[in-house]
């Protein structure tokens, strides 16, 4: 991918993906999937969720909670701040048409949550096959060690 920073409306992407009855688990699953995707694609991601929570970093993914503001307000501020540094390298991901329009007017790329999820699903298919196979390779073998460790902590519920 050509863009070096994606700013995602996390709850928006979770809803489009289909959260199911356990919304907190759906959020954590998204964090893990995006961390793997970001590592493979070589991009940084800021994943913004509404409400209160403990922000954290997992590999190339920074998880942020909006607190008393809306996620859209936080995303807009982050996009405009980063657009001044590298406008062609920032993409806002949201299904909110107004937020995407504001981002594009500021010179930032924008895409829908569905388009991002399509890219997320296609990522393993785009992974080049190893030139010489020495046995079974798992997805965990391809992840950055810091991402693998963070995902393992999530799996254990820490």
Features:
single chain, alpha/beta, Rossmann fold, six-stranded mixed beta sheet, globular
> What composes the largest sheet?
6 strands, mixed
Q: What's the helical proportion of residues?
A: 40-55%
The low-confidence runs, each spanning 5 or more residues with pLDDT under 50, are 126-133
Distinct helical segment count: 7
End-to-end distance:
32 Å
Short summary:
The chain has a single domain (5-126, 134-156), classed as Rossmann fold (3-Layer(aba) Sandwich), CATH 3.40.50. The chain has 7 helices and 6 strands, in the order βααβββαβαβααα. Strands 3-4-2-1-5-6 form a 6-stranded mixed β-sheet, sandwiched between helices.
Produce the secondary structure layout:
Blueprint: E1 5-9, H1 10-17, H2 23-41, E2 44-49, E3 56-58, E4 61-65, H3 71-83, E5 90-93, H4 97-105, E6 109-111, H5 113-126, H6 139-142, H7 145-156
Textual characterization of the structure:
The protein is of the alpha/beta class. The chain has one domain (5-126, 134-156): Rossmann fold (3-Layer(aba) Sandwich), CATH 3.40.50. Helices cover 50% and strands 16% of the residues. The chain contains 7 helices and 6 strands; from the N terminus they run βααβββαβαβααα. It has a 6-stranded mixed sheet with strand order 3-4-2-1-5-6, sandwiched between helices. Helix 1 crosses helix 2 (23-41), helix 1 crosses helix 5 and helix 2 (23-41) runs antiparallel to helix 7 (145-156). It is globular, with a radius of gyration of 16 Å. Residues 126-133 have low confidence and may be disordered.
């Amino acid at each position: 991918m050509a863009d070096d920073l994606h700013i995602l409306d996390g709850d928006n992407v979770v809803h489009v993906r289909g959260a199911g009855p356990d919304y907190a688990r759906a959020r954590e699953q998204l964090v893990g999937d995006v961390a793997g995707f970001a590592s493979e694609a070589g991009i940084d991601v800021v994943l913004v969720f509404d409400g209160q929570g403990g922000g954290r970093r997992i590999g190339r993914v920074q998880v942020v909670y909006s607190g008393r503001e809306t996620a859209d307000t936080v995303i807009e501020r982050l996009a405009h701040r980063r657009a001044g540094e590298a406008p062609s390298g920032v993409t806002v991901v949201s299904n909110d048409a107004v937020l995407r329009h504001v981002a594009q007017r500021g010179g930032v790329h924008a895409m829908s949550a569905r388009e991002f999820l399509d890219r997320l699903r296609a990522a393993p298919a785009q992974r080049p096959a190893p030139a010489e196979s020495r046995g079974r390779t798992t997805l965990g073998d391809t992840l950055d060690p810091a991402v693998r460790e963070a995902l393992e902590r999530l799996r254990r519920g820490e």
